[in-house]
Write a structure and sequence with these properties.
- By secondary structure, the protein is mainly α.
- It contains 1 helix and no strands.
- It is rod-shaped, with a radius of gyration of 34 Å.
Length: about 80
């Protein structure tokens, strides 16, 4: 009877080990997939937020250039 019992325990242990390994592999696969999707979302959000910042920088540069040209014209008229 002991031999049958130890054989059954070994079989159960093997089945549980295989099942746990398969479960861990599936969880790792799900985590990797979620990681890739989250990276894509972060990149999309970053791209969406960087476009207005670039436009804001261009607008500020144009405003500064126009202001400096106007200031130069004004100073030129005052000095003459």
């Amino acid at each position: 009877m002991r031999g049958v019992e130890s054989h059954a325990v070994k079989l159960i242990r093997d089945v549980v080990a295989e099942s746990a390994a398969a479960w861990r592999a599936e969880i790792a696969k799900d985590i990797n997939g979620a990681h890739l999707r989250s990276r894509e979302l972060v990149d999309d959000v970053n791209r969406a937020h960087s476009a207005p910042a670039i436009l804001r920088g261009i607008e500020l540069g144009l405003f500064a250039a126009i202001f400096l040209v106007g200031l130069g014209e004004l100073l030129g008229l005052c000095v003459r």
